Each structure stands twice: as structure tokens, then as C-alpha cells.
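Risk register update: the risk of archive-format incompatibility is retired. Evidence:
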Amino acid sequence: MMAAHGERFISARAGNGLRAVGEIKAGAVIQLKHIKGGDTKSSAPFAFCIARKFLQTACHNCVRTGEKLLRCSQCKTARYCSVQCQKEAWPEHKSECPCLKRVHPRIPTDSVRLTARIIFRLLSDPAADAEELYSVAEHQPHLEDKSDEQREGLAHLCSTLMLYLGQENADPSLPNGLTPIGLLARVTCNCFSISNGELQDVGVGLYPSMSLLNHDCRPNCVVVFLGRRLQLRAVRNIRANEELTISYTEVLAPRVERRAQLQQQYHFLCQCQRCSREDTDRELLAGDDAVWTILRDKLPQLEKLQAENHWEELLKESEALISTHASAVPDTNVYLLRLLDMAMDACISLDQYEKALEFGKRTLGPYQLHYPDPHPSRAVELLRVGKLQHYLGKLEDAQSNFRQAYDVMKVTHGTDHSLINEVQRKLEECQAELGRVQSS
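Archived output:
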């Protein structure tokens, strides 16, 4: 499939934006016009860093995860999957290495480390910013839109940043009037989470030209990552001159939650079609209001258990809530659906695969309903359930879910992505095993 193109334009509803140059078919890779250098199908970050949670398990160059990684002998923090990756990363790492060494074993937040890397890039290669469709200086910091509490938090982050940079970088002479606190503000509004095939956020990066993409709660594009490189793909047929959009927030959330997050982090009130109509939450909030409110209020506590890997307690709590309240709230309700996903995660971590499959199967109908367009989240859910079915010998069911995952990923990931290659291998294994069963 030939690559499609997007170009910068002024959007009537949201200022700067990107739009289609000609018609774009679903599944097409969209490259941006007038970006100098780089390959045509994916975008390298201006700067990126590994998320704090993955510092010990993800390569700081290619972002692949693994258990036995090489560690930088100086800072004791950066890790690499090979000597080659360590060499390739050195031009980016050499400036931050003494900073990490100075604060070790403390680790600054992702936003502080990313901002420091942006500063080092601007100082070492000032011309790089001019090659972007949307320069770092053009990004909006939204300082005037922030609450007093947000400004106070930003000031605290800036103090941490200056301590991290140290005396040798105490007064960086940044181009175009940029300041450390202004860069931090730009990072919080414009960075992308770098996700792996399982949709885990392993890093965070700034992709200036891609920051032109505006938000929609039912977008016509998705972002996927090939390592740390970002790829923009159409999930629906797009008309010539139609604006290209992505979702800044989790689309599997009620309107009130989506709007609140967008207002707090990105400083705008979403007026997309999904947010402008009150009836769009009918399925997301189906069931008894009083009951799903209980589930909603319990979720932060359960998410904490999940983050801390307290799987037995998480399973006990989530199972009790599901069995107690499922009669009053259907599986399509977003809060019960989140509980089902958490219960499945807990079961998998505890090697309770039969029970995990029972929870997983209940999520597939709701995922299909809530993701009417191809979406990575639905593909990954189909793959997870298919893997459980395959492991448990339910080969025909597994084959069906792998095929559905493949159909979604052809659009969202493309046929060259490592994740779709995994699905193809699973399909081949199912077909071979079914053939042996039928011939015996």
C-alpha cells in the first residue's frame, strides 16, 4: 500500500492541525509532507526517555524489554539489550549520564528526564528543531491556563530539573526564548507515551510534528510504535482535506471523565461528536447507577493493588465485586469491564488460566461494541483471550480470535509489525494442531 500524506493547516475548531492530502484508505501509513530527513513511514522522537517503571527492564535505545540487560557502568541507571544499542545510544546518553550519576539512586520523574534530554538536544543540535513541521518553540505551554496548584507543581518540577542538570548546565542558553519551565509545560501538554506491543507505556517522547494532531474521542487515526519510532495509521477511509485526529485520552471512558482529563491536562473542553451528545454513554454506563457508582469508587484502590502486583488480594476483591453486582450491571458497563480485565490479569499472574479465560471471554463483546473502528486495544484483547484458549486446548475458539485480531491489526499495525507476526505464528500453530487432531 502506498503511503498517504498529511500536511499542516489551520483548523477552524482548534488552530494548528494536520489534514489529509488526497483520499486516505483505512490501514494506510500517513507520512507528513515537508519533514526533512528521516524515513518516510515512521517518525523518530526529537527526544525520549524510558518510563521510570521500566528503567531496569527496557533497553534505553530500542525500548525492547528483557531481563538480562547491560548496565551503564557510570550512571548505574541506563540499560541496553546489546553493546550495539549501547553505542547507538551514547550520543543521547552522554549528556544525561553525569546527571543520573549525580542523583543515583534517586530517579527524577519521566517529565524531568525528558525535558533534560530536550534541552541537551536543543543545545547540541539547534538546527534539528527547524526541520520539524511544528517546532518546539511553537508548542503551546498553556501556562496561563493552569491552576495555581498546577503552577506550583510545575515550579517544583523545575527546581528538580535544575538540580538534576547541575551547576554545569545551570543557565542553559536555549534558542527562541525557551526556558526550562516553559519546556516542562510544553512536555506535559505535548509528549506521547511510547507503548510496546502489549500496550504497556515503556517510555515517553516528544514528536514535534506529530503534536500538530488534534484530539477526537472517535478519531480517524491511531498512533503505534515500532520501537521508539512513531507511526500514524488511518483506521477509517479519510476524505481529501479532512482533518487527521487521534485520541489524547482513553476512549473507553464516560464523557465526563474524558472531558475532565482533557480539560486538566490539555486545557480545552472537548466538543467532538461523542462529547456533544449525552446519549453516547448509554452502553458505557448501562445498569443501576447506584451499583456502578460503587464499582467506580472502588477502582482506584484496585488499580493500586494491580500496580503493586498484589495479585491474590486483587483477585479476591475484584471477584467479590463482580459476583455481587453483575446482576445489576451488564458487562458493557465500563466499570465492570475494567474489573473483568483486572480479574483476568490477576488470574494470569496466579496461573489460574481457566478462570482467566472465563473473565476474558466476557470482555470481547463489550470491546467490540465500544471500539466500532479498528483499535489496538481490541486487537490486544482478542490476542490475550486467544492465547488463553490456545494454551487450554480450545483450538477452534483460539483460531477465531486470532483471525479477528489479525483483521484489526492489518489496519492498526500493518503487516510488518512484530505483533501481527506473533498473531500469524499463533494462527499457524492452531492450524497445524487442528490438522493433527482431525487426522488422528
